[in-house]
Design brief:
The chain is mostly helical. The chain has 2 domains: 85 residues, Rna Polymerase Sigma Factor, Chain: A, CATH 1.10.1740; 51 residues. It is 76% helix and 2% strand. A two-stranded antiparallel sheet has the order 1-2. Helix 1 runs antiparallel to helix 2 and helix 3 crosses helix 6. The longest helix is centred in the middle third of the chain and has 60 residues. It is rod-shaped, with a radius of gyration of 38 Å.
Length: 182
C-alpha cells in the first residue's frame, strides 16, 4: 500500500478506493482548516470539503491533474470558497432587489389606496354640492369644458360659471383640509 501519492504533469490519476482513502486521510484536515479560516463556519467547512472529495470520487476515472495532488486540492477548495462567496453576494443582491421591489410595490399600493379613498371622498363632496353648482363643476372638471362653453350650454354668464366653480372648489378644499397632513 503506497504511503504517498505522486502525480506527474497532466497524468491521469488512477484513483481506486485505497488511493482515495489515502488522499482523504492525508489532506482532509488541511482542506477543512483552509475552509474554516475563510468561512468561520464548521458545518459549512465540513460540507465544502466533503463536496470536494465527493466530486473527486465521481470524476476519478477522468480526472487530469497538472500539479501535485495537494496543490490541486488546495486550488479546488479555494475555488469552492470563492464560488460560495460569489453565490452569497448574488443572493444578497437578489434579496436587496426583492426588498426594494416590495417597498416600491407597498408605496404604490399605499398611494393607490389613498388616491382611491380621496377620489371617493371627492365624489361624495361633489354630490353634496347644490345642483347647479354640481353641474357646472362636473362640466368643468370631468368634461373639460371651459367657462365660455359651460356658460353657452347652460345659458348663463361666464361670471356665474366662475362663481359656481369658485364656490365648489372652496367647499371641497374646506372639507378635504383634514386630509392635508395625512
Amino acid at each position: 500500500m503506497p504511503e504517498t501519492v505522486e502525480i506527474n504533469e497532466n497524468e491521469l490519476l488512477q484513483i481506486d478506493e485505497v488511493t482515495f482513502a489515502l488522499i482523504y486521510a492525508k489532506f482532509w484536515k488541511k482542506l477543512y482548516y483552509i475552509c474554516y479560516q475563510k468561512l468561520n463556519d464548521k458545518d459549512l467547512a465540513q460540507d465544502m470539503v466533503h463536496d470536494l472529495f465527493e466530486s473527486i470520487w465521481e470524476r476519478r476515472n477522468t480526472l487530469l491533474i497538472s500539479d501535485s495532488i495537494e496543490k490541486y486540492l488546495i486550488k479546488s477548495v479555494k475555488y469552492k470558497i470563492s464560488g460560495y462567496f460569489r453565490e452569497r453576494i448574488q443572493q444578497e443582491r437578489n434579496l436587496e432587489e426583492s426588498m426594494l421591489y416590495a417597498k416600491e410595490a407597498e408605496a404604490v399600493t399605499e398611494k393607490q389606496v389613498a388616491f382611491s379613498f380621496l377620489s371617493r371622498e371627492l365624489n361624495t363632496l361633489v354630490d353634496e354640492l347644490p345642483e347647479r353648482c354640481r353641474l357646472i363643476y362636473k362640466l368643468s372638471r370631468e368634461k373639460g369644458l371651459n367657462n365660455r362653453q359651460i356658460a353657452s350650454s347652460l345659458l348663463v354668464t361666464e361670471k356665474t360659471v366662475e362663481n359656481q366653480i369658485t364656490k365648489a372648489l372652496s367647499y371641497i378644499r374646506l372639507k378635504l383640509r383634514q386630509y392635508k397632513n395625512e
